[in-house]
Amino acid sequence: MTLAVVPSPWLPAVLAAGVSFVAADAWRRFALHRQLLDAPGPRRLHQQPTPRGGGIAIALVLLAAAAWLGQGVAAFFVGLVVTAGAGLVDDLRNLSALPKLLLQGLGALPLAWAWPLAPELLGTGGGFAAALLLVLVLVNFWNFMDGSNGLAASQALLVGVGLAGLTGLASPAGWLGLMLAAACLGFLPHNLPKARLFLGDVGSHALGFAVAGLSLHALSRSDAGFWPLLLLPSTMLLDAGLTLLGRLLRRQKVWQAHREHLYQRAVAHGWSHSRICAVYFAWSGLALLLACCLAPASEATQAVATLAWLVAGAALYFWAGRFWPRRENLMESVG
Question: What are the TM regions of this chain, as residue ranges (predicted)?
């Protein structure tokens, strides 16, 4: 049974932020007691052992709010449990790359089945495969980008606000997007400016899954166009995607941990976590405004503007990389 009526969002949003804050604090105390800590290391940007797994608070808020998605709620709920659960297992006892990827794929399956990507163009099978790939990309890219205080959660917050703005709060995806933003807002005081708690894989997996799932839901209902939705996570896609491409071209093992993302290189060259978070937030905020401005435009205009934005972002990535070059002694992968 699914709920067809979307409730007024403001009181639930405040409640979501409060629950996220309290649940994250409770998890921090539990993690300290159980010594579930991320220790400093060659690929880490922090200097003190810090509790991990705090993103379980965001995952719990999303699971509770998912009831208002309507059709496909079971796919979102089950997929989030499996995907975030894979991250939680990794936070608790370390999970190797292949089993984690297989669990991520298992979690993506019901979502891709419920809301295939552009089936009218790609066909049923092609739409299913494209949706599956989208979920895996966003889950892993959010995981890759979760290495600096506040970065992953603040970017998901902006995507949630963008979904609410593009699809409207009367839309299930827009309403849940607001809950996503509220949950991230509740978590952020634990992670920024000083990190007393990390999202962990459970958090980054939940955020990437939620961004993918809500985007697919919005597209399936024609609540928003593809190109404006692509703009919302474009900052994460550019940094993670271009970094991954560079590692592939250098024939490096892309599944191994490293410190080659642009934000990691900036920190290695002396930028603070807060400054990096603010710069990325500002750039994504501009992308959000562009997406909202493009919403009433023709699809051709949306496509041209979005591609121009991505080209500009790629140019900025390579320009900034000249000031924050790779340091071979800091960038070596670890197992």
Answer: 56-89, 124-142, 225-249, 278-297, 303-320
